[in-house]
DNA sequence: GGTGGGTGCTCGGGTATTGCT
DNA sequence: TAGCAATACCCGAGCACCCAC
């Protein structure tokens, strides 16, 4: 029996011998209720297992206690999911419920449909997790002033946005290679158009430029270890000379190492590699991977804090950018020869 | 201006010059509306950008078009998140909205609070993703007949449950080692109490028993590569003799390989290893990992199909159990010596 | 008597007003 | 004047019922 009618305000009022107005006052912590009546009402609430109907409340107050999360899915689903889970946990702490929906760029439905799925719920605010910039401007228009926070990609100039210091991190990673004497450096990037890929590529290019160097080559993968392996094979087959690779993420670096090993090339003796992400397992690769890490953990709480401030119409908090950290392990050495 | 009042049924009715009932009929595709009025109403709807208020609708129909997902978080968060995303996508296809909330066993709040967060939304059904059995019986009671589907762990005898064939998969993995002549086999398990850990351990033990063997040792890790590394060190320090390890997942296997390598032990020459999961990157480990894979992809669609059937009070679909597949690569060889 | 369409109550809870103690 | 009851109406939709042709 799913739907035995649940107790309502009126039932509580009747049991407690008060008016429904008083019950409402107790529920919302209003004044003008004596201790005695309050406890009477509370007892009745517990006895009946009363729970307010959120839909009814939302209907009249016009403000639901739930936030929407829109995931615009792309290659790196797992990354988005981590953010989602953080956002959800933080939202819960802040007494918000989380409604999620995803939008697949390759599907027939329009972004508008996905956005309206959330808007129709009258969410109090929205967190958008997207790896690409495209379409985000329209999104702002569609939502028409609704509190909004973007994770990763966000429209140009939009104030509420949480992103990684990709460019700086990539710069530092590349710099590490350069400071070891490497000059012939290849970059494995992620899919073009993803903000992470593009920013990291930019950081790489800036570091090279500051040394007056040209990249040997920039190869585009899809973040997977498989693609790193494939790119490694392609690179070796091309016959281009290089002494180091800066990989856009750790997984591609793993695939690259695999492909080098198959051709009897060793890391770091023959080729030096720097990764990106510092996955939990990267230190157990062979060799342990030198990589660059960014603290992800505050992503969710920052997003929710920004959203809450907007919802409450307060001044949004200002966050310091996250400082990327270079983690030096065993996949880099000084240049020996130009193979 | 977030809340310029949005158009309601009445506004549409006024503009179209009909009553709100007629508009409601058009919206719900009821009969007894002439083509002419229908198109008039539809025009008005578009013109006003009208969107029905889901809360109002839920209030009167007592059935919301949203399902709840409760994530009871444990070690393997990423696994749960993958299921979540599938569930969410499938739910969307079926025109349901997804509300999620998580419950942390180590937190002060009770499971009841988490469940009620969802129940208060009057969700039409609930998907529970839990790695542990504990507390799931109460959950069934609390929800009082609400359509329910459990992913991974589920209460004893509960009919609606999606789980992996862990026991069988682990049996096959162990069997592979045995058929190569290994007799001194160690098992690295996940945290005790997790259904995945326990089932895999059982499969391992059954395989050993059928060969009349005792496990050399069963070591408990936490699924992480770090713990696999630690367990590897512990094992080597213990001086116990072994020729093979069946690791409860691929990541711990990676850590184990790392620890063996540090002691100049090679895989598979000195020690054979079978993993579990077949991560995308496992084929790029050194050596490429022999492991066992289960197809995860239908998890979400199965869960939603089961839930939908319950919600619609239809006969739930019956699914064949997923057949685990042994993926043979280079981390196992025949026994040579007992080190 | 089947179509087409309007009136009015309902869902569950918020709130403003009045009035009594 | 604090503490409460009683009344009444609102939110936005669904629907039973009624009344026209």
Textual characterization of the structure:
Two copies of one chain form a homodimer. With 339 residues, chain A is an alpha/beta fold. In chain A, 42% of the residues lie in helices and 15% in strands. The first copy, chain A, contains twelve helices and eleven strands. In chain A, the strands form three sheets. In chain A, strands 2-1-3-4-5 form a five-stranded parallel sheet, with helices on both faces. In chain A, strands 7-6-8-9 form a four-stranded parallel sheet, sandwiched between helices. In chain A, strands 10-11 form a two-stranded antiparallel ribbon. In chain A, helix 5 packs across helix 12 (299-311) and helix 8 (166-179) runs parallel beside helix 9 (195-210). The termini of chain A are far apart. The model of chain A has no long low-confidence stretch (mean pLDDT 92). At the A-B interface, helix 4, helix 5, strand 2, helix 6 and helix 10 of A face helix 4, helix 5, strand 2, helix 6 and helix 10 of B. Strand 2 (97-104) of chain A pairs antiparallel with strand 2 of chain B, so a sheet runs across the interface. Chain B binds a DNA duplex (21 and 21 nucleotides) through residues 8-10, 18-25, 27-28, 31-34, 37, 52-62.
């Amino acid at each position: 029996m799913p739907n035995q009618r649940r107790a309502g305000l009126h039932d509580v009022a009747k049991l407690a011998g008060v008016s429904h107005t008083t019950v409402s006052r107790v529920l919302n912590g209003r004044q003008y209720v004596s201790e005695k009546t309050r406890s009477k009402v509370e007892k009745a609430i517990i006895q009946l297992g009363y729970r307010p109907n959120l839909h009814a409340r939302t209907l009249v107050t016009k403000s639901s206690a739930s936030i929407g999360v829109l995931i615009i899915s792309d290659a790196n689903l797992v990354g988005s999911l981590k953010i989602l889970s953080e956002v959800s946990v933080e939202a819960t702490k802040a007494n918000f419920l989380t409604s999620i929906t995803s939008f697949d760029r390759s599907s027939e439905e329009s972004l508008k449909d996905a956005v309206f799925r959330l808007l129709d719920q009258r969410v109090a605010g929205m967190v958008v997790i997207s790896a690409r910039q495209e379409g985000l401007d329209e999104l702002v228009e569609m939502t028409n002033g609704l509190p909004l926070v973007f994770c990763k990609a966000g429209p140009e100039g939009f104030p509420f946005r949480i992103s990684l210091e990709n460019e700086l991190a990539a710069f530092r990673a590349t710099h590490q290679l350069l400071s070891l004497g490497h000059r012939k450096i290849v970059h494995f990037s992620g899919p073009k158009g993803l903000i992470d890929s593009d920013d990291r590529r930019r950081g790489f290019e800036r570091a090279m430029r500051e040394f007056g160097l040209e990249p040997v080559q920039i190869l585009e993968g899809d973040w997977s270890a498989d693609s790193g392996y494939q790119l490694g094979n392609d690179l070796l087959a091309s016959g281009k000379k290089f002494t180091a690779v800066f990989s856009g993420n750790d997984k591609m670096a793993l695939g690259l190492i695999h492909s080098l090993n198959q051709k009897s090339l060793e890391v770091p003796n023959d080729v030096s590699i720097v990764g990106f992400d510092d996955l939990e397992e990267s230190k157990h690769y062979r060799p342990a991977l030198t990589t660059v890490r960014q603290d992800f953990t505050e992503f969710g709480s920052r997003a929710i804090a920004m959203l809450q401030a907007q919802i409450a119409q307060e001044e949004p908090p200002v966050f310091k950018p996250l400082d990327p950290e270079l983690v030096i392990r065993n996949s880099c050495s000084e240049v020996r020869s130009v193979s």
